[in-house]
Amino acid sequence: MEDPKMLFNATNRDTGNSMYDLIRKLYPICRSITGNGVRNTLSILKEIIPIDVVEVPSGTPVLDWEVPDEWNINAAWIKNPEGEKILDFNNLNLHVLNYSTPVDKEVDLDELKRHLYTSPEHENWVPYRTSYYTRQWGFCMSHKQYRGLKEGKYRVKIDSELTKGSLSYGELLIPGKSENEILFVSHICHPSLCNDNLSGIAVATELANYVTTIERNYSYRFLFIPATIGAITWLSRNESHLHKIKHGVVLSLLGDKSPFQFKKSRKEQTEVNKIMSYLLENEYHGKIVEFSPYGYDERQFCSPGFNLPVGRLSRNSFGEFPEYHTSADNLDFVTPEGLQESFELLAKYISIVEGNKTWINQSPKGEPQLGKYGIYKTTGGESVQKDYQMALLWLLNLSDGENSIIDIAERSGVRIEVLLQACQDLIKVGLLKEA
Predict the structure, then answer these.
(1) What is the pLDDT of residue 429?
(2) What is the pLDDT of residues 203-248, one digit of tens each?
(3) Helix or strand or coil: residue 265?
(4) What's the CA gap between 178 and 199, in Å, rounded?
(5) What φ, ψ does residue 6 adopt, rounded to 5°?
(6) Distance between CA 22 and CA 203 in Å, rounded?
(7) CA distance linking residue 170 with residue 56, whole number of Å
């Protein structure tokens, strides 16, 4: 028997630092639901994994929506009555209301304040705000700076444009033996926010690299899409394909060190719910959240017309930590260690998915004499030996064509990695076959 921990040794190198380096590279880019910031981000990802970049023209009907006009921005600033630049988009792209219309004019303080957004509860942080579907202009600043504004005339300029262009998203399919797919989704529409957006992108990218190194029963599809409209656009273009999706996970907020949360798919009795619940409850002391039609892109995949078994993995959920949607969600807030642990959890999820089959005991009448098969023996320490022997017995007893590996793990209390190793050993000696 091999050391069961080796089944989950996803990589021999430190992936946490490589994911953090990718976040650092992507952090300065101003992204939105469309535009060159998304394309630049996808171009960087394409240097790491072979994604296909898809462009969907503005005005294209997508389910009950329509692909919006494309937004791009070159510069934006505010000058005070003395002509000094007091706020500059080039210093922090959160300073501009995302999707702002162009403006170049002089305004008094009262009018300026009608276009300013702050976070009074955190007066040194700059909030992130958007106006995708309402045409307006605006700036975001710290509440401390806001309180210091003086009466007088201010010059405001936003050099942006809204034009007929396209919505861009990235897609990668890694084929396996089966056409049935495991889906991973990350959103790619936020500007300089590290945990919300970039952590999901980084973990998904590293996970795609990892999947190429393993033997795959399933195919794996990775989507890098703008939130909401991106998911709706992809679903609209791929309805005939959706029956191949076995299950999936939306990845977001995975870079800090808070406990994990998994939000279940709408469809209750699904493999993804079982596996993630097992991992978080037994190994990561995380939290399981019931499905609700509010959140990230899981709500699009789980809409009743599709009802796909897609959940969401995060650490602290959106809105549950003070740094959320503010300038404090920066390079200091995420850590290589947090990213590494997120990646390793998902690698375990993949290992379980690949091994979570239903088996048939080939010697079901009485207990087989395991000694003659050479697998019922002392291996490693006493606790490892005992777990392994119990794994053999539970597998043989419950492998009746009705129980998967995750079902057996839940009922037996034996660690999943030990069960998977014992399962491999029983297959080798002909005592188990796939149902």
Answers:
(1) 94
(2) 999 999 999 999 999 999 999 999 999 999 999 999 999 999 999 9
(3) coil
(4) 29
(5) -65, -25
(6) 10
(7) 12
pLDDT at 318: 82
Phi/psi at 406 (5° precision): -65, -35
Dump the DSSP string for 131-173.
-SSS----EE--HHHHHT--SSEEEEEEEEEEES-EEEEEEEE
Rounded-to-integer distance, Cα 291 and Cα 289, Å: 7
Strands 116-117 and 103-108: unpaired
Q: What values do phi and psi take at 322, rounded to 5? A: -60, -25
Evaluate whether 182 touches 349 at the Cβ level (below 8 Å).
no
Q: What does the alpha-carbon distance between residue 346 and residue 313 come to, in Å, rounded to a whole number?
A: 9
DSSP string, 327-365: TTSSTTT--HHHHHHHHHHHHHHHHHHHH--EEEESS-S
Buried/exposed 387-398: b ≥16 CB within 10 Å, e otherwise: bbbbbbbbbbeb
pLDDT value of residue 320: 85
In terms of Cβ atoms closer than 10 Å to its own Cβ (0-12, 13-18, 19+), residue 310 is buried
**Distance from C-alpha of 67 to C-alpha of 10, rounded to nearest angstrom:** 39
pLDDT of residue 374: 85
- Between CA 91 and CA 236 the distance in angstroms is 38
How high is the pLDDT of residue 378? 47
Q: Do the Cβ atoms of 221 and 208 come closer than 8 Å?
A: no
Indicate the SS3 state at residue 428.
helix
Q: Tens digits of per-residue pLDDT, 57-111?
A: 999 999 999 999 999 999 999 999 999 999 999 999 999 999 999 999 999 999 9
What's residue 4's pLDDT? 42
**Assessment of whether the complete model's pTM goes beyond 0.85:** yes
**Cβ 186 vs Cβ 200: under 8 Å:** yes
Give the pair of three-digit tokens for residue 345: 């959890």
pLDDT at position 371 is 84
At how many degrees (to 10) do helices 15-26 and 36-46 cross? 150
Rg of the Cα trace of the chain? 25
What pLDDT shows up at residue 198?
Answer: 98
Dihedral Cα 294, 295, 301, 302, nearest 10 deg: -40
Determine contact, residues 253/199, Cβ cutoff 8 Å.
Answer: yes
- pLDDT given for residue 148 in this prediction: 97
Contact 241, 266 (CB under 8 A): no
Ranges under pLDDT 50 in the chain: 1-8, 11-12, 378-380
